[in-house]
Amino acid sequence: MTKHPPIKRHKALHGLSKEHHQGLMLCFKIRHGIKLGVKGERIKKYCDWFLEAHLVPHFTEEEQFVFPVLGNDDPLVQRALEEHQHLEALFQQTQVDYDYLRKIEKDLEAHIRFEERVLFNKLQDVATAEAIQMIASSTGHEPACGIWDDEFWKSPL
Known about the structure:
Layout: H1 14-36, H2 40-70, H3 75-92, H4 98-126, H5 129-138
Helix pairs in contact: 1-2, 1-4, 2-3, 2-4, 2-5, 3-4
């Protein structure tokens, strides 16, 4: 794995970056659950919950408040929108085998890395102070989503 230097993230984007971190934690939990031999049904149940509790609200925030700053015709925004659609459709499939779960993990991680390393960097370069303030006041709020009791990533039982 290539080591990347830390990205200087504008404070207005910290909340969204924290949400991205939660997405990367989902990827870790999928990988670790598979490594432990956890039944795919348990992992998929968590993925379904995570989609509704975290990803859908996160995607909505980005699409309403972040992407318009660059414009919906921007190629990076177009890519992000396509990836949002792809990920939602992928999560909504009913498969539970490890290959399917690995696909979720790999595609979600690649999407998050793209947004953090490419799209957000461009956003920081071109956004006006007013746009940044609007993003800060409209995004990155922790959704009230409860706690997941089945910590399959800690134990296969």
